[in-house]
Amino acid sequence: MNCFFLKFYTNKIPVLILLLFSVFFTEPVIEANINSDSIASIVKKTKESDKPALYMKLANDLDDADNEIALQYAQKALAIYIKLGKKHEEAAARYKIGQNYYSRRDFKQSTDWYTQALRIFQSLKDNAGIAGCYNSIGVNNFQVSDYKEAQNLFELSLKYSKGKIALEEGRSYFYEGLILRKLGKPDEAIEKLKSSINPLKFAGDLKQLSKSYHFLGLLFYEKSQFPQAIEYYKTADSLRKSSNDYYGSALTLNNMGNVYWSWGKYDNAIAAYQDAMRIFEKIGITEGISSCLNNLGLIYNKMGNEVQSLESHKQALAIRKQSGDLAKVAESLNNIAIVQSIIVDKELVKKYGKGWQENLYKKLPGQKILSFFNECLTNYKESLRIRDSLDDKEKTAQLYVNIGTINSFAGNFNSAETYYKKADEIYKNYNNISDETSNKINLGIVYLKTGNYELSLQYLQEVLKVAKDHKLNELVKEAYKNLSDLYGDQGNSSKALEYYKLFTEIKDTLLNADNYRQMAELQTQYETESQKQKIQILKKDKALKETQIKQQKYTIFFFVLIILLVSIMVVLFYRQSKQRKLANIELAKKNDLITEQKKEITDSIHYASRLQQAILPPSEMFDQLLPDYFVFFMPRNIVSGDFYYLTEKDGKVILVTADCTGHGVPGAFMSMLGTALLNDIINKFQDISPNKILDDMREIIIKSLHQSNKTGEHRDGMDLALFVLDSQNQVVHFAGANNPLIIIRNGELTELKPDKMPVGIYEKGSIPFTSQTFEIQKGDMLYTFSDGILDQFGGPDGKKFMIKRFRELLLGINKLDLKKQKEKLAKTFNDWKGTYEQVDDVTVIGVRV
């Protein structure tokens, strides 16, 4: 069961968490015990002349604790300053009242009071006051998204503060950086924020300085430059702790967790989230605690630790229920349901095997299968009820998709269709092309499974058009695959083949250009030279046509003047004939050059083939380690994306049959990488458990190719079957990435199923590979293979060879000697292929114990 297709509300987790925690403008309200009697006593004992200053101090000190009382004291101070005619103090009091209204998020009132203060400061020619007011009014405009006006105000502030008033200069640059980030100009935003650092350091405002470092960390994170992001966040955290800004420190630590998560450093991410949570607990910010628990639940799930994930999500749910935040409660219920569905799936795999759906469809009705998921469905539906009450349409649609997917897995296709259609109606009203198109694929698959080919075709063709228009290549690939299956089910082999070719083409072309520069150069060199050849031929044709036109003109001219210019005509004709001969000689030379260049390119690719053959294990190694074997290896092109690998360690034989992303030159380079990784891993580590080898390979491939699982990213990797033959203990240990191991004993076939994921980046995350152990006997036949033979179109109806026909073939030939088996296999494949093109590289290896 592919539970990872179920959507977290936080499926773009780091961005949403950053939106939640990076808004530093609203500081937490910390309760304080205000003793009204003691304050009254202090005021009473203070001299009348000193009372306005005391009122201003109280207004500042009480602003966070009791905003209303703070406002009253600021107004008292203002009244006295007006009466005394103290203009500068009056302006400061009006500015303070503006800050008070800002804290209440009443930006209009705040701007009115700041403007009153500005007029007084302008009359006094107080540059510091003027710059401060422009900045503060600009911040109010920023808060209501009037970025143009805000930017104008910050520039006005800089006219008065640049090089003179460090704090206001730093504030202006800081807020301009935030505006540029909002406008989608990250590089300019970074320069502005960097410009704010020195003035703020000079002013000694650690709190404002920490915000500059915090947002620099955020910007580098959004650019996926993770080391720089961490360095800026660490500086921000240090500054916030030194200025006792513990709330700000918790926000920064939480964002560091997001960076480590995206970077793939999960242990560091967990540590950062836990540090943030400890601070939130210390200062009593329950929303922060629950959000950290939610993040921990998501990352534990990513790591495959469902038990710890479930516990974290349940703790977050309990806190969110107490706070009454219904949207967050719905989020936690959804996340709990997803983890529960994964746990149920693993239990069913353990009990009924990896193909539990097929097995249970034959034995149990859909409602019975669905009952296994009762608990997670209950949580989904409660989350749906809350989202419905909040009129949160997009989240409601995601829940419909999740519930529909559970029903689809259970074989309840009518219910699945109902939920998917509900989601589709909502998506039509929102500009969420990716989710809407993905959901239409769900509907297309449901109709395909229920035999409603007309509707299935309608949805899949719509998906294909939208996905192409918006360059959603993964969805284009899925549409091609399902269209091929649809036409195959209908018996339309030509259409099935057409879409299968398109599917393999887009699958094979989703390659990482940066990591395969040399490979791409080799593959495109021939095409480039061919293009040059065409251009040269066109130029020569054009030159010849121009020469012919000139000849015609000259002939007409000579005809008119034939009597007078016979001698000139003869001379010219002779000269032109000579030029034509010279041109033909030159053309022949250039054609020879082009032919030579083409030969050089072809020779280069053949040389690459010899290099690839050189890294494959030689027959002498097979003869030494596996005396009774055959290898049927038939690349589609000169070089191959399939490869095989053989070695021996600690008396055990390790055999790998692999199918890399792509074929031809790109696949060949990937196969060389695979061979190098296997050599490195097996030689370096003592543990040669098959699953451990695959886990290590995947980790290195992801790091080497800088893969991050982003939408639209190329997914390079390989499918393979790996077994370790332990002859001494008469067992074989197996792990597979999409490719199985077939064992035949006494005419009975056993298939060890692989994990349904590649060795490389995978949309469901880095789930550990599993290992299986099988007791073997003398005479057992072991077969590993790539999918090239299964996917080959041919036969009388132009259909794929398929796994069923391949199993029957192996059962028919397994008792023959290995040489005869290979001959029979090759003949069957070639007879089946007939006049059809070979669609992929083909590898089959057989070993008799």
What can you tell me about this protein's structure?
With 849 residues, the protein is an alpha+beta fold. Among the domains are: 517-612; 617-848, PPM-type phosphatase domain (Phosphatase 2c, domain 1, 4-Layer Sandwich). It contains 33 helices and 13 strands. The strands form three sheets. Strands 2, 3, 4, 5, 8 and 9 form a six-stranded antiparallel β-sheet that branches. A hairpin with a 2-residue loop joins β2 and β3 (652-660). The radius of gyration is 36 Å and the shape is globular. The two termini are 34 Å apart.
Find the structural class using helix and strand composition. Answer: alpha+beta
Find the CATH topology of the domain at 617-848.
Phosphatase 2c, domain 1
Give the class-level CATH name of the domain at 617-848: Alpha Beta
- The biggest beta sheet, please? 6 strands, antiparallel
Helix % is 55-70%
Assess the beta-strand content as a share of residues: 5-15%
CATH architecture annotation of the domain at 617-848: 4-Layer Sandwich
Overall 3D shape: globular
Q: What value does the average pLDDT take?
A: 83
Low-pLDDT stretches are: 1-34, 511-535
- Total strands: the figure is 13
Q: Number of helical runs?
A: 33
Spell out the CATH superfamily of the domain at 617-848: PPM-type phosphatase domain
Task: Return Rg in Å.
Answer: 36 Å
Distance between the termini: 34 Å
Task: Please give a handful of descriptors for the protein shown.
849 residues, alpha+beta, 33 helices, 6-stranded antiparallel β-sheet, Phosphatase 2c, domain 1, 5-stranded antiparallel β-sheet
